[in-house]
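User: Hi! I have a protein structure encoded as tokens and I'd like to know what sequence might fold into it. I'm fairly new to this, so please keep things simple.
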């Protein structure tokens, strides 16, 4: 499949890309090769192929959520500086 330089210029304008005139021939060849490859892919018989989101099977590797004993809330926050019910931390955003 062949793409013209006018089509490349229009695509570049719509996508806010700059294609310099000295690179136009190589871009034309690359885009034509891509379109030819896509046309070949469209010819494949894929009716019996299962749709999938990934090329390889994936499985969840997360552990099950289980309630376990943890630190007491008051004990965990006992050493944290607090002011009016909020944690007091050093300023990290500069003006």
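Assistant: Happy to help. Inverse folding works backwards from shape to sequence: for each of the 95 positions I chose a residue that suits the local structure. Here it is:
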């Amino acid at each position: 499949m062949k793409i013209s330089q006018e089509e490349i210029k229009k695509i570049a304008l719509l996508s806010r890309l700059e294609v310099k005139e000295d690179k136009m021939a190589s871009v034309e060849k690359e885009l034509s090769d891509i379109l030819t490859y896509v046309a070949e892919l469209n010819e494949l018989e894929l009716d019996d192929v299962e749709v999938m989101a990934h090329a390889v099977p994936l499985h969840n590797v997360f552990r099950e959520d289980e309630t376990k004993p943890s630190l007491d809330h008051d004990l965990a926050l006992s050493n944290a500086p607090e002011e009016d019910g909020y944690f007091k931390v050093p300023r990290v955003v500069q003006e």
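A useful reference point when you look it over: The mean pLDDT is 88. Feel free to ask if any position seems puzzling.
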